[in-house]
Amino acid sequence: MAADPAFEKAASALAGYGVGAIDCALVLGTGLGALAEDVEGAVQIPYAALPGFPQGEVSGHARQLCYGTLQGRKVLIYQGRAHYYEAGDPAVMRVPLGMLTALGSPPLILTNAAGSLSPDMPPGSLALITDHINLNGPNPLVGDQGDGRFVPMVDAYDPGLRAKLKQAAQKVDVPLGEGVYMWFSGPSFETPAEIRMAKLLGADLVGMSTVPEVILARRYGLSVAGLSIVTNMGAGLHGGAPHHTETRDVAALASGALRRLVAAFLSEP
Ligand code: HPA
After folding, report:
1. Per-residue pLDDT tens for 229-248?
2. pLDDT tens-digit readout, 183-208
3. Where are the domains of the chain?
4. Nearest Cα residue to atom 7 of ligand 1
């Protein structure tokens, strides 16, 4: 497959900031930005400076990349993602993720805040995504060309990365649930009826991100893992209604466990 010029362009803009080959890329979800504080020799690059990256701000926080060293590994951390619900574009993360192919195709860990449908994964807990359901419909590869667009999605969440994350979680004593993530477009939360449906269809987690990013990443041949921070039980499962401040605050509280898990993951050989 010929290299996409948009990916080359973004990667060469990054080279101007000293970014070279990367050992691991991480996308941080809502409330999880603190993980970037652990990075040594951090170089911050605003998305606004990078061609093809989503522009604008969310909740007053500039979106930026953080490049540096974590546990002796070169990491590229995406502090903030763009969501489908912002402008209706499922491929909004195409260039930010696709350009990883020009930076050595590192493994990609996608994190998110999610609602849980399982009492075994209460708010504050971490869960490994094993598979997803794109009930939402839109696919970021609509309009893509060539046979490469027919991406197989068996083991889309890489079994090797999953095993390594489980091992790391055990090592640092971080309980790690696992389950199927169902993508809802947002930005409104689900109704209790939708949550009951999601459960019936085999979902364990619900959220407004990640799925289009996994499809894009698989299109570009990257190995992907997904981690959810459970911020609330799905609508109707636990009395009150989920809301955004809760998502942000609970995710921030659980981000310590995520930091330990990621550090242990990176320190594995
Ligand atoms: N639903 C969708 N997205 C979410 C939720 C939820 O309950 N919690 C955090 N992100």
Report:
1. 999 999 999 867 777 877 77
2. 999 999 999 999 999 999 999 999 99
3. 5-144+151-267
4. 115
This prediction's pTM: 0.95
Q: How many CB atoms lie within 10 A of CB 252?
A: 17
CATH of range 5-144+151-267; options 3.30.450.20, 3.40.50.300, 3.40.50.1580, 3.40.50.150: 3.40.50.1580
Ligand 1 centroid from CA 256, angstroms: 20
Q: Is 207 in the pocket of ligand 1 (CB under 6 A)?
A: yes
Q: How far is the CA of 148 from the centre of ligand 1 (A)?
A: 32
User: How many Å lie between the centroid of ligand 1 and the Cα of residue 63?
Assistant: 21
